[in-house]
Each structure stands twice: as structure tokens, then as C-alpha cells.
Write a structure and sequence with these properties.
Layout: H1 3-15, H2 17-25, E1 32-33, H3 34-41, H4 45-57, E2 61-66, E3 69-74, H5 77-90, H6 103-107, E4 109-111, E5 114-116, H7 118-129, E6 133-134, E7 140-141, H8 143-151, E8 167-170, E9 177-180, H9 181-193, E10 197-199, E11 206-208, H10 210-220
Antiparallel strand pairs: 1-3, 2-3, 4-5, 6-7, 8-9, 10-11
Length: 225
């Protein structure tokens, strides 16, 4: 296929009104199930699946499996930049989708043995912004990261088992990545040992203490209300 034909095919995939709405929905950087996406753009499941398949064919979106669920999100930052430019020309704003997750759990909770929720996603982004971690799905700890996690009191010893050391884990409320794997578990252990966070006995909710809030402000400039 020639460059002109490839461009025309890509443009056709975006030009469809329903598929364009799907792409706009995914511009918030989150991942959604096919059911959520089809409901948001007001089409039946079979029609929605067909549209999602066409977007996947053009590598505009990708499918992420998390447990028994399948989520869809933009394929990468390049796609987001492309859509951002087109949306600028069209003069429209990004759509917002409200999460149905209770606010307390959306803020901070456990995900197996590591942290999840809004705070965990923000920490994950901080780790990458500071160059502590590199990678896409399986993360690599940098020398700067070793020093940073050591200063936080986190045990960065690789696990003896075959468990992944550090990896992306899709957050089901934020629909963005938080830190999973052995390093994610060690981070939560460290926060608990230092009394920065406490677990609720009757749920998976995590509560940040006054000491923990001060620590996150000091180390990452994160303001927790």
C-alpha cells in the first residue's frame, strides 16, 4: 500500500462520526471496556465492536487485558498528539467521563499487595517524570531510581521467585497505570512501616496519615487534602 493509500485509510478510520467519538473519549488517557465505550457513544454492542476493530486495525487503539476484563485505550502518545492537533483544528474540548467508583476507594486503596487509586497513579507518573523507572509494561529501575527508592526506605531487592520486579498495572478506577510487581508491593510495605498510610479493616481503602501527607508533599510535591 502506498503512502497516499495508507493516509487515506487512516483518515477514513478517524472520519467516521462514531469512531471519532470513541477516540475523543479515550483522549483522557484512560482505558475503558467495550461496554463502557459503546454506551458512551450510544451504539449497540455489535456495532461498537466493529468500530473498535477498525480502530485497532489502524493501530489507533490497543487492547489491554486485566484479569477477566479487556480494556481499550489509545495506542500511544503519538496518537494522542495527532488527535490533539485535529481537535484543535475542529475547535472542540476533550470529553470527561465520571467514574462510578466510591471516592474513598478511587483516592487510595490496595490492588492485591500494592497501592492503587488516584494517589498511586500520580506516584507512578512521578517515578517516570523523575527518571526513576523506564519501560512500557515491564519497568527497569534506573540508577537514579535506586537512590530515590532507597531514600524512601523501599526495599529494591529483586524477588527470589519469578514474579515481575516492576511492571504496569492498569488501575480500574483511574484507568491509567500504577506501579505493580514486587517493587509496587515493597513501596506499600515501606509506606505502612513509616505510618504514612493505614489500611481500613473493612475494605481495601487506604488512608494517608498526616505524616504520610507531609511526606508526599516533601518528596513529590503531591498535595493530599
Amino acid at each position: 500500500m502506498s503512502l497516499e493509500e495508507s493516509l487515506a485509510t487512516l483518515a477514513a478510520a478517524i472520519a467516521d462520526r462514531t469512531r471519532a467519538r470513541m477516540l475523543c473519549l479515550l483522549m483522557d488517557g484512560r482505558a475503558y471496556t467495550a461496554t463502557e465505550i459503546t454506551a458512551a457513544v450510544d451504539v449497540v454492542a455489535s456495532t461498537g465492536s466493529s468500530h473498535l476493530a477498525k480502530l485497532q486495525e489502524q493501530n489507533l487503539i490497543t487492547c489491554v487485558k486485566q484479569g477477566r476484563y479487556r480494556y481499550f485505550r489509545l495506542s500511544g502518545q503519538e496518537v494522542a498528539h495527532l488527535l490533539e492537533t485535529l481537535m484543535g483544528f475542529a475547535g472542540v474540548e476533550k470529553p470527561q467521563v465520571k467514574s462510578s467508583t466510591p471516592k474513598s476507594l478511587q483516592f487510595a486503596r490496595t490492588c492485591y499487595d500494592h497501592m492503587a487509586g488516584d494517589v498511586a497513579v500520580k506516584l507512578h507518573d512521578c517515578f517516570f517524570a523523575r527518571g526513576w523507572l523506564n519501560g512500557d509494561v515491564d519497568y527497569v529501575l534506573t540508577d537514579v531510581g535506586r537512590k530515590g527508592f532507597n531514600e524512601l526506605g523501599v526495599d529494591i531487592t529483586p524477588p527470589l521467585s519469578r514474579r515481575q520486579f516492576a511492571c504496569s498495572c492498569l488501575d480500574w478506577s483511574e484507568r491509567k497505570s500504577h506501579l505493580g510487581g514486587a517493587l509496587g508491593a515493597a513501596l506499600l510495605v515501606s509506606f505502612e512501616k513509616q505510618a504514612w498510610v493505614q489500611r481500613r479493616l473493612d475494605s481495601r481503602e487506604l488512608v494517608f496519615t498526616a505524616r504520610g501527607k507531609r511526606a508526599l508533599l516533601r518528596h513529590f510535591q503531591l498535595h493530599l487534602s
